[in-house]
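Objective 1b. Sequence-to-structure analysis of Putative gamma-carboxymuconolactone decarboxylase subunit-like protein.
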Amino acid sequence: MADEIDDTDELPSVPGRLASEQPEVWEAYSDLGKACSEAGPIDDETKRIVKLALAVGAQSEGAVHSHTRRGLDEGIDPKALEHVGILAIPTLGFPEAMAGLSWIEDYTDE
């Protein structure tokens, strides 16, 4: 699984601008993502779910949206993605988990 985005046209405006204006920085960032993805034995679906959980934990709405969208594109069951928000309740707390779940549902409810 390539966690980096090769097509900079698909990037949100700020990362897209960085990729256009600083291609060496974007390439290094993309290479780091690929190296991290390939550094261990975790399968692609599990990696996507872990990255979604990390995004929920970081309370990063943009990253939650990105990993949810990409998970759906990769064929992950929407209910599995939503389960990440439920699993966050005892660790992150109810309000943070519900924020994450709402961001996930922005795409799974479509």
